[in-house]
Amino acid sequence: MNETNVLTVEELIKKSKAAQVAFANATQEQADAAAKAMCKVIYDNQVELGTMAANDTAMGDVEHKIAKCRNKSSLIWHSLKGKKSVGIINRDEDKRIYEVAKPMGVVASVIPSTNPVVTPMSNAAFALKTRNSIIFAPHPRAVNLTKVVVHLLREELGRLNLPKDLVLGLESVSIEGTSELMSKSDVIIATGGMGMVKSAYSSGKPAYGVGAGNVQAIVDTDANLEDAAQKIITGRYFDNGLICLGEQCVFVHESQYDEFVATMIDNGCHYISDEAEVEKVREGVFPAKGPLNRHIVGLNAVDAAKVIGIEVPEATKVLLVKGTKAGSEDILNREKMVPVLTILPYKDFKQGVDMMVENLAYEGIGHSVVVHTNSKENAEYVGITCSVSRCIVNQASGTTGGGSPTNGYGATTTLGCGSWGNNSFSGNLGYEQLMNITRIGYPLDESYLPRPEMAWED
User: Which residues have a Cβ under 8 Å from the Cβ of 249 and sit 6 or more positions away?
Assistant: First the structure.
């Protein structure tokens, strides 16, 4: 990349396409080496990059940002190891269909301010695993940080004697520039606000966008309250509540409400039930019942409380706020990118799940829910009833829904929400979404339907 002259989008696309064409016939070993390097360099620079991510964006927790660099880089590379993405990747001998992986071309990757290091790392690893090139469109808050990340990734490619231009970034950030990049690329990964995601889907190019988060959690009567409380708090306060997978509202049986609140307090929550103070929280998080207060986004619970105008203990991790009812009548049922958690009682499990559905209809449909239960039947009831892409059982959603060594979700930083969330996919984005597939089909030894009337036989 030219470090002195700012390249136009057209120039970046030209350089990226040339690099991708040169890389298109890379071996599996070369593709794997490139993908591994994208992750390993972030792992090796986790402290510097995690600290910059918190400082440059003025959002989130430094130690949690460092942990994300460390854990996501390891997890994503581990998930890619040994996976075929070059040549014939699957042979179905029964159907006599062989699948051949092909690259898509230039990937445009829109980066959110909330995840300015591990999102480009993840998308770069997926892109290079599948012999694509990638160009990043950073958030204005993270332009300098993105330049640092791009420089590190390019240097690793140089060490592997691969084209450095496989990784590029917009050097001058604007809405117009990002839109042009998306329209001239071959495929788009849009991680960020709904406006940008909508723009990606309107670009005329295939796109993988994400929907709004607003994770609902329910605690069944047979759950271990201490375990559930600890995991919900972990998911809610991680990175100061910036994670779209962070729990936003928790429903507890009315008979266990007081006990659960006490358990949450014992584990670092400050409980707010006085209506005047609850109203202060509403106004502080959503001024005049409007959009989320940008001055509170990504603050820790103590600093957020100062903005709101309430006093809390210095060790507070989460502001636990008593809700009024489910659905759109209480704005605290929306996504809150700050460690504020709404709590509501339910009379029976079905009603609790119905309340979750109401909140999802208000915001966050298609994303994720959490259930803490020892009942497989109830866990599956939640998964069947809620229109979401992930139903996370007995785990901290904020730290596991994007993949974890303790579950089977795909390791990623991009979470699809299906048609419910106006997305093209429902699941965790992986390298598989960045491959075109050629299917080689041979004739079967004999027809499986020699006579049409056989189709109607039992």
Answer: 214, 216, 217, 323, 332, 333, 341, 342, 343, 344, 356, 359
Q: Which amino acid is at 173?
A: V
**For the structural domain made of 9-210+426-440, what CATH number should be given?**
3.40.605.10
- Give pLDDT, residue 4: 47
CA angle 398, 207, 409 (to 5 degrees): 30
Q: Catalytic residue positions?
A: 244
How much is the CA Rg of the chain, to the nearest whole Å?
Answer: 23
Shortest CA distance to 442 belongs to which of 97, 91, 92, 99? 97
Coil, helix or strand at residue 412: coil
User: Which DSSP state fits 424?
Assistant: S
| Rounded distance between C-alpha atoms, residue 17 and residue 289, angstroms | 46
Tens digit of pLDDT for each residue in 387-438?
999 999 999 999 999 999 999 999 999 999 999 999 999 999 999 999 999 9
Contact 108, 181 (CB under 8 A): yes
Report residue 156: phi and psi, to 5°: -65, -40
Contact 180, 13 (CB under 8 A): no
User: What count of Cα atoms within 13 Å lies in the side-chain half-sphere of residue 423?
Assistant: 31
Q: Could you tell me which residues come within 8 angstroms of residue 182 by beta carbon, excluding any fewer than 6 positions away?
A: 108, 110, 137, 188, 190, 199, 200, 203, 205, 207
Q: Domain 215-403: state its class.
A: alpha beta
Range 50-59 average pLDDT:
95
Contact (Cβ atoms closer than 8 angstroms) between residue 277 and residue 254: no
Strands 388-393 and 247-253: unpaired
Closest CA to 187 of 126, 85, 109: 109
Kindly report, residue by residue over 21-36, the tens digit of the pLDDT: 999 999 999 999 999 9
Segments making up each domain of the chain, as ranges? 9-210+426-440, 215-403
Q: What is the DSSP letter of 85?
A: -
Dump the DSSP string for 372-396. E-S-HHHHHHHHHHS-EEEEEESS-
| CA-to-CA separations, 189 to 107, 140, 141, 280, 367, in angstroms, rounded | 7, 18, 19, 38, 17
- pTM comes to 0.94
The DSSP 8-state label assigned to residue 255 in this structure reads: G
Q: Within 13 Å and on the Cβ side, how many CA atoms surround 48?
A: 10
